[in-house]
Amino acid sequence: MDSVFAVIITIGDELLIGQVIDTNSAFIAQELNKQGILVKQRIAVGDQWDDIWHALNEAQKLAKLIIITGGLGPTADDITKPLLCKYFDGKMIVHQPTLNHLTHIFEKLLKKPMIERNAKQAEVPDTCQVLMNEKGTAPGMLFEKNNIVFVSLPGVPHEMKWLMQNKVIPMIPGKFKTGHVVHQTLLTAGIGESFLAEQIKEVEEKLPTHIKLAYLPNYGMVRLRLSGYGFDKETIEKEVSDYFSQLKEACKTYVAADEDIPLHEVIGKLLMERKQTLSTAESCSGGYIAHLLTSIAGSSAYFEGSVVCYSYDIKEKVLGVKHDTLLKYGAVSEETVTEMVSGALKLLETDYAVAVSGIMGPGGGLPDKPVGTVWVAVASKEKIVAQKFYFRFDRKRNIELTSNAALNMLRLLICG
Ligand code: ATP
Questions:
Q1: Is 156 in the pocket of ligand 1 (CB under 6 A)?
Q2: Residue 132: phi, psi to the nearest 5?
Q3: Separation between Cα atoms, residue 162 and residue 142, nearest integer Å
Q4: CB-hemisphere CA count at 13 Å for 35?
Q5: How many angstroms does the Cα of residue 69 sit away from the middle of ligand 1?
Q6: From the CA of 71, how far away is ligand 1's center (Å)?
Q7: In degrees, to the nearest 5, what angle opens at C-alpha 415 toward C-alphas 348 and 344?
């Protein structure tokens, strides 16, 4: 059995000038992947007849399934439908169920007359199978030629998603014999991509061609994703799982999670399991660590609160940082951050606390404390650990890196 390949073609000038980000192909690729269909190529083309025509010709050389989105609307720039009509040697006919659906939308829901331009949306090439679009006015279409399936969907993301899930995915088993795609993801923290590659070199070199390893770095963390493709579900699941265990063993000091979840969710799970609580004292991250933690549903079970403290005054009055400490060592110092974390632990009566203080930039750097200098402290009732970091990016990225560094220190403290 051969692998089934797909090509995704997204249409619209707005995609080429960067006005709209092409989220449609990411969604379609994920959905196809779950069905064991491998996306060979994703192409974005403008609203140009010749370019779309050429893209269809080229896609046929690569794939058995071609999914197109966009350009189905009622305006002059929407040329996908007439183009597909010509491409598949058809003629336009009225699709009565779509016309009934449009009449219902205009008369009952919008309560306004349907103009001819809208009614025209019920016209489709007679060579297609219509995919009724319950979420909008432009119907989806399916064509078959030379054993290749072409699907055309509207560009509006929620309409495209509905049609993919309700019309396209259900027809896949009937049209293609697909294999199985298995993914397993490891979250590592506290190690850069190239060092990690050295660490797992031996496992990576052993991987067979049908199992691929991807490095996905992001703000101080690297996700390692193993993707296997095979026709027997159990065999491929076992194979991927064996290599996954070897990978995990090879970098075990840095493994934060053996599933695809962010670090703040890892912390949440650890605290939940242990029935323990956490607070934060944030001087340079403006509550971002608290925001990450509370973006997880159910976080109020372990997250007690945060003190966002930018001035000396608040650090002293609320967290009990000593005036002398601030004068002698400054806000961005081991001494201050240690007193901040102790203060949060005491004030908010939690099992753990995190404190950060740093210079996020672009201004505010000092000769001995350049922009990007950050002190992080994490504490339990028994232990305080403080560490200095230097981040060298813009303000937003420095805040994100600070937060992840703090969460990783906390993870290490919780895990002992
Ligand atoms: P409509 O009937 O609304 O005109 P359509 O099929 O003609 O649908 P387009 O006009 O191409 O679709 O796009 C409609 C809107 O959908 C665009 O304004 C854009 O915001 C969004 N869109 C189009 N293509 C994509 C894409 N690839 N990724 C994300 N959003 C998209």
A1: yes
A2: -60, 130
A3: 15
A4: 24
A5: 8
A6: 7
A7: 15
Ligand 1 center to 105 CA (angstroms): 19
> Does residue 28 have its Cβ closer than 6 Å to ligand 1?
no
Find out whether the beta carbon of 138 lies less than 6 Å from any atom of ligand 1. Answer: yes
Residue 57 in contact with ligand 1 by CB distance below 6 A: no
- Cβ burial, residue 40 (10 Å; 0-12/13-18/19+): middle
For the whole model, what pTM was predicted? Answer: 0.75
Q: Please check whether residue 159 is in contact with residue 153, taking contact to mean a CB–CB distance below 8 angstroms.
A: yes
Question: Nearest residue CA, atom 16 of ligand 1?
Answer: 156
**Is residue 73 in contact with ligand 1, taking CB distance under 6 Å?**
yes
Closest by Cα among 170, 85, 175, 80 to 162: 170
pLDDT in tens, 91-136: 999 999 999 999 998 888 888 888 888 888 999 999 999 999 999 9
pLDDT by residue (tens digit) across 164-196?
A: 999 999 999 999 998 888 999 999 999 999 999
Identify the band that residue 2 occupies on the pLDDT scale cut at 50, 70 and 90: confident
